[in-house]
Amino acid sequence: MKHLLICLLLSFPIFAQTPDNQYNLIPFPARFSGQNGQFTVSPSTRIVIAPATDASVKAVAQLFASQVKTVNGLALSVAPTSPALAKAPHIFFTLNKKLVLGDEGYKLTVTPTKVLAEAATTKGLFYAAQTMRQLLPAGKSATAAMPACAITDKPRYGYRGLMLDAGRYFMPVPFVKKFIDLMAMHKQNTFHWHLTEDQGWRIEIKKYPKLTQVGSKRAESIVGQYSENYPQKFDGKPSGGFYTQEEIKDVVRYAQSRFVTIVPEIEMPGHAQAALASYPELGCDPAKGYQVATKWGVSEEVYCPSEKTFTFLQDVLTEVIALFPGKYIHIGGDECPKTAWKNSAFCQDLMRKNNLKDEHELQSYFIRRIEKFLNSKGRSIIGWDEILEGGLAPNATVMSWRGTAGGIAAAKQKHNVVMSPNGTCYLDYYQGNPATEPLAIGGYLPLDQVYAYEPMPAELTADEQKYIVGVQGNVWTEYLPTPEAVEYSTFPRAIALAEIGWMQQGPHNFEDFAQRLKNHLPKLDVIPVNYAKRLFDISATTQANEQGQIQVRLSKLDSDSRIFYTTNGKEPNEKSTEYIGPITLTKTTTIRAMTQTGGTPTGGRLTQTFTLHKGKNKPYTYTIASDLNSDPKTTKLTDGVRGETPRDRRQWASFSGDMDVMVDLGDVTSVTKVSLNFLKIIMSSSFPPASVDIAISKDGKDFKEAISQPVTYDLNGPWDILPVVADFKTARARYVRVRAKNAGICPAGHPNAGGKTWFATDEIVVE
């Protein structure tokens, strides 16, 4: 396989050959040269280290040996160097203080007679070992081989992170270690451990035992997505779990052996409901009786900024500091509603005494108090970008999650920034068709979109850019209750982010990455990892040819595989029609497609119905505009693709008021039926319209034929898709007009009672 060498290491020249060997390294090295031949690893191979070497080097060598045994079945021994070993075909780990590659850089030279890993630090040798792990094949055998190559490598960013939310669902210690292993394998070095939430407190604090006695347990969990049912449903199953301090110490040691620093997160001032359930006196209204939250979203129950609260948090953080030796303590700072503070006489008095003009400044006051305490203990705070509101704490690092604006603002203020925008770094979003994917929080983030992310904002000057210190992926677990679900959502998207954080700045070629990833995935199978196979997905778009016929174009991320498809409703196989070019449709058709490589199915699947009708690809205009960005190109209502599920809003145009749309069919033609669908998502205030009026006209002015009908539905129950059909029998028209009247306001008993409703529709089908 030929590689596009796509990054530079400072002023090092890049030199590459294209031998027959396959190099499927992720992240791909900064400087790489492929060579001919290979180094054979057998039971007689030794991992050789200097006799008086640092004990940590021996530990890295022994860890590498254990990993090779687990994956390849080869028992390699670690031996001190000797004249005899120095001349034999072995693997050598060498500290070379003259290398100027930073504390994570390394050199790796693989020849048919020797493997030499060099680095100025033990950490660099560890990353050289991870590269060797990837050069070795997956699976156990009597021998294994590394393709010959020469590598000089170092990372772009010093902070390359991955966050695991253990607050919503407790994740057991063995899985946490596995998660750390997978991070280290792909050269990520910071594990952000989200330990406290409204739905669960997961860390033992000896001074406050109720945090785990009470706060680690919730009575039940919401069923389905937050807005799926009205009223919401719950499973009735208690959920809990926490990490003892001894377990945390064990995980910390485990991470340290893999050069992963753990950043613990103790949320404040918001996301505190589990703590308040344990110690109600920390809230603004202790008499109300706090409970550990059983549903997702943002809770209005937040810490009261009293001296009692600050004493509690300082005590908690003192125990946290003793457990985690890293520089950073993450204090959250996000999604802190101010309602409790606005209604609190104590808070309002505190604001007056400290000349704080609003509750945002009160939050800043809160964060600054915590930062001062942590700084006094030799630690630094990191928080979500809301900590910018009301004034940023002096030494804080900002984690920019609401897009990139927070990171840009913080960098301009000369604060360190970790980029983690939700649009490219939230690994709990859907990664395939939401109609067929496991339940997720929403959004849509396919693998290629993750890989396309550039962490350095173009808006920053060269001096400001130095404050962007890294990039992080986040795995929130509201809809990921098991380790298997976490793995599916996280990988391989986290691997794409790992490469983005390691490789030097410059254009990244997704096709090259996808090819390496496909050959890398068998290494995950051996572990095993329940990764998503969305790399092999098929997507479809429609177009009109010169004759005005509708054509469907199929595409895929995996460039090597072949697509086979059917249009008769049957499941495709290798004997089905192979996709070569656009598929011309003459009627409404369901296309089913699959991918395969070398006669073996790869797992890529597509089932999509294309609705051909007289309005397909016809222009339309809004008399009353749709909501901003819901239909930016004015194409959704006639693109031939109907919305499949309320989970996926990409095909739906939404309206916060009434709707008035006119479709121009181009010529006067027979119109027998007009239909469209509306969403019902009552919990999210999406009510079907009160009435729908569908009319047709020959000239766009005189609408003689019109059908008006109410939309009836049961308010209670699950979300739904409701059809509206107008039957015109034998009419003729050029223009179709659809008007829909908003349902008005949410009724009493609804969470948004008295608030405005909205609605969404998809395809206007004209027959």
Put the structure in a nutshell.
The chain has 767 residues and is an alpha/beta fold. The chain contains 18 helices and 36 strands.
Please tell me about this protein's structure:
The structure is a single chain. With 767 residues, this protein is of the alpha/beta class. The strands form nine sheets. It has an eight-stranded parallel β-barrel with strand order 8-9-15-16-17-18-19-20, surrounded by six helices. It is globular and about 100 Å long.
Number-wise, the strands total 36
Q: What share of the residues does DSSP label as strand, in percent?
A: 25-35%
Helix content: 10-25%
Distance between the termini: 51 Å
Major sheet strand order: 8-9-15-16-17-18-19-20
Low-pLDDT residue spans: 1-21
